[in-house]
Amino acid sequence: MTGCGMRRRPRGWVDMSLSLSPAVTFAIGDLLEGRPAVADAALQAWRNQALGWALEMGLPGASQEAWRLTPLKTLLTTPFRPAGRGDAVDQAPDLAVPELPLRLVFVNGVFDAAQSQVEPWPAGVTLTVGESLPPTAWDYLGKVASLEQDVFVALNQACTPGVVCLEVAAGRRIQQPIHLVFIGQSPSQPSFNFPRWLVILEDQAELTLVETYHSTGPAGCSAVGEVVLGAHARLNHTYLQQEGPQACHLAHTAVHQATGSHYDLLAITTGASFARHTPTLRQQGPETMTHLSGLVLLQGQQVADTHSFLGLSHPQGYSRQLHKAILGGSAQAIFSGRVRVAAQAQQTNAGQLNRTLLLSPQARVDSQPQLEIEADDVKCTHGATVSDLDPAEVFYLQSRGIDPAAGRTLLLTGFAGEILQHPSFPSLKARVQAALNDLSRPAAPPDATP
Amino acid sequence: MGVEPGDLILSVVDLTAEIEGTPILKGVNLTVRAGEVHAIMGPNGSGKSTFSKILAGHPDYTVTAGSVTYLGEDLLALEPEERSRTGVFLAFQYPLEIPGVTNSDFLRLAHNTHRKAQGLPELDALDFDEYVHDKLDVVKMDPGFLDRSVNEGFSGGEKKRNEILQMALLEPTLAILDETDSGLDIDALRIVAGGVNQLTHARNAIVMITHYQRLLNYITPQFVHVMEAGRIVRTGGQDLAEELEARGYDWLRDEATPAGVG
Ligand SMILES: Nc1ncnc2c1ncn2[C@@H]1O[C@H](COP(=O)(O)OP(=O)(O)OP(=O)(O)O)[C@@H](O)[C@H]1O
Ligand SMILES: [Mg+2]
Q: Distance (Å, rounded) from C-alpha A306 to C-alpha A276?
C-alpha cells in the first residue's frame, strides 16, 4: 500500500478550524420532519428505512476521516429547511442544451413535465418518474449507493420526493443522449432538495447520460445517482455542476460495473459556494474499464471537494483517473482519490493523476491520492502536481501580440484541455469555457467584491 | 505601417537598465534604419539578451534612463503586446514551452491579433491552416509540429525554427533574433538563414545577436556591434566580425574605442 499527500496553503495562512466554532444551524431532524410526503407505500417504506440512519449518523465533522479535509462552515451554518413546491419560482431559466433534445427537468427534486422534453422517446429505454417504481428498480435502489456510506445518502433516501429511473434493454445502443436537469430554487429562505436517479443498463446496452445542476438563491442539494452496468454495457456520463454562488451542493455518483463494461465519467464543477462530489465505483467482473475525468474551476471563496473511490476486485481491470483543478481568488479544492486493487485483481492497470493550477497566492488545494494495492501482478501509477500560472508564459504570448487576459485564457484552456477535449457537446463546452474565461480575468482587489 | 526604405526604425539613446537593483545596461546607443541588417556580438553576460528583452517589454527589467524610439514613438510606453502589434518581434534565445496549448492554436491567435490590429478580418481554423502551410515552407518545418504543444519536447533547433515560423507569420518591421543560430545543425542553419533572408526587405530591419561569424556568412550585416559590460563598445562592418572570430574580445578591452552609431 502506498499513499502520498500534498497540501498547499496560502502565505500567511492561519488555521482557524480550532478557534472558530460557528453556530451550527444545519438540523437533520428538521429536514426529516419537514420532508415532502409521498403516497406510494413501497417508496415510503424505503424512505423510512433511512430515518434512523440519518439521525444516528449525525452531522459530518472533522473527526471523521472522510470529512477531515472538508471545510464545512458554509454548509453547516446555513439554516436549511426542506424544499417544498412553493419554493419554485414560476419561470425557471432556460437551461436547455440544443444538442440534448431529450430533457427531464426536476425542480427541487420534483419532475417538471412542462419544462421537460421526452418526444420522440427512444425505443429500448424505459422511463419512470415519480413514486411507483418498476420491480427491477427495487433490485438496485439503495443498494449501489448505500445509506450506510454517508449521512447525505441517508438523508437523500429519507427525504427524496421521488426517483427517476431509466432502464435500457439488453443490446440496445441508444444514440440520443438523455439530459437530466436539476434545478434548485430557494428564493427566500434557504431550502434543501434531494434529487434521486437510477440508471440500469442491461447487458451490452449503451447510453449517453448528462446531468446538470443549477440553482437560484441559497439552495442546498444532496443528489444521489445510482448506475448499474450489465455485462459489456457502456455508459458515457457527464456531470456538470453549475449551481448558483450561494448554493451548497453534494452529489453521490455510485456505480456497479459488471464484466467487460465501460464507464466514462466527465465530472465538471464550476458552481456553488460549497460543493462535494463523491463518485464511488466498483468493478464487479473481469476486463472492466473505468475512465474518470474531473475538472474543477473555482474562484472567490468557493470550496469544492472531490472524494472518489474506485474498487477493482477482478482480474484485468483497467482504470484511468485524471482530476484537474484551476483555483482563483481564495478558493479551496480538496481531492481525495482512493483506488483499491484487491488481491484477486491481477493484471490490473490503474492510473491516477491530480493536477492543480493556483492562480492566486490565497488559493489552496489539499490533495490525497491513495493507492491501495493487494494484488502483486499489477501496473499502477499515481501522482499529484500543484503549479502556478507562469508569468514567463504570459509574457511569451504578449510578445506575440496576445494581451494578458487572452493569454491567460489560452493557458487555462491548455491546462484544462486534456479534459475538455473529451467528446462532449459544444454548448456544454461553451458553458465551461465561459467559466474558464471568468477565471482568466485579473483578480479584482479583495475589497471590490460587490 | 508605411515604412519607406531608409526610414528610421529604431533609435536607442543612452539606455540604462537594471534587474532587481543590479545595473545591466549601462548606456546603450543604437540606430537602425529600414533595409539594414545589424549584428550584435559580445561575450557571455554582456547584456545582449537583456537588451533584446527590454525592447520586447519584459516586465522583469527596469529602464533607469535613456530612450527608445520606434517609428517615431516612445517604445517604452507601450505594453509588450502593443509592441508586437506595431511590428517589433523578438526571437527568444530560450523559447518557452507551453504545455497543453497546441502550436496551431497559439499561432492562429497571435496571427489574428495582428490582423485585427491592422483592421483585417480574422482567419478561421481552416483558412489559417492554408495560410500557415505556406509559411512552414519558409523554414521547411514539418506540419506535424502544428499539432503539438507549443515548443513542448521540441529539440533546441526545432524551437528556433518555430521562432522564425512566428516571424514569418507576424511579418515584423523590426526583428530581433537572439542567438537564433545556436542549437541549429549545419543544414538547419542554412535553411533558417535562408528563411530570414526571404523575410528581409527594404522596409524592415533585423538585429541579430550571435556569437559566431558562421551565421553572418548567410545573412550579411551592414553593421556589426560589440556589446561589452552593458555598452556597445565598437561598431564596424563584416570585417569586425571576422577579426573577433580570429582574435576574441580581449584586444577590444585594451583599445576601448567609444561606441559607434550605425
Ligand atoms: N535577476 C538577476 N539579478 C542579477 N543579475 C542578473 C539577473 N538576471 C540576469 N542577470 C545578469 O545580467 C547579465 C546579462 O545577461 P544577458 O542574458 O543579457 O547576457 P547575454 O549577453 O545575453 O549573454 P549570453 O551571450 O550568455 O546569452 C548577466 O551577467 C546575468 O547574470
Ligand atoms: Mg543571451
A: 6
Of all protein residues, the one whose alpha carbon is nearest to atom 8 of ligand 1 is B19
Quote the CA–CA distance of A78 and A189 in Å, as a whole number: 10
| B2 within a domain of the structure (yes/no) | no
Half-sphere exposure in the Cβ direction for B68 (13 Å, CA): 20
Within a domain: B89: yes
Q: What is the pTM of this model?
A: 0.86
Pairing relationship of beta strands A191-193 and A110-111 according to DSSP bridges: unpaired
Match 479551496 to its residue by C-alpha cell. Answer: A332
CA gyration radius, chain A: 21
B105 within domain boundaries: yes
Cα–Cα separations (whole angstroms), residue A295 to A213, A214, A324, B212, B253:
15, 17, 5, 49, 59
Asked whether residue B1 is domain-assigned, the answer is: no
Chain B contact for A394, CB < 8 A? no
- Give residue B15's domain range: 8-259
B229 lines ligand 1 (CB under 6 A): no
DSSP bridge pairs for A297: A326
Q: Structural domain tally of chain B?
A: 1
Q: B130 near B146, Cβ under 8 Å?
A: no
Counting runs of H as helices and runs of E as strands, what totals does chain A give? 8, 23
Cβ of residue B239 lying under 6 Å from some atom of ligand 1 = no
pLDDT means over runs of 10, chain A (450 residues): 48 44 84 92 96 93 90 91 69 78 94 93 95 93 95 97 97 97 88 96 98 94 98 97 96 98 97 98 97 97 97 96 96 96 94 94 94 92 91 96 94 87 81 91 52
Residue that the C-alpha cell 533572408 belongs to: B197
- Residue ranges in chain B whose pLDDT is less than 70: 1, 255-262
Q: To probe the interface with A, which of B53, B60, B101 has the most A CB atoms within 10 Å?
A: B101
Closest CA to A443 of A386, A402, A389, A397: A389
How do residues B87-112 score in pLDDT, each as one tens digit? 999 999 999 999 889 999 999 999 99
> Residue B154 and residue A78: Cα distance in Å, rounded?
53
CATH of the domain at B248: 3.40.50.300
Distance from CA of A394 to the nearest CA of B (A): 10
Residue B210 beta carbon below 6 angstroms from any ligand 1 atom: no
Q: What is the largest CA-CA distance in chain B?
A: 59
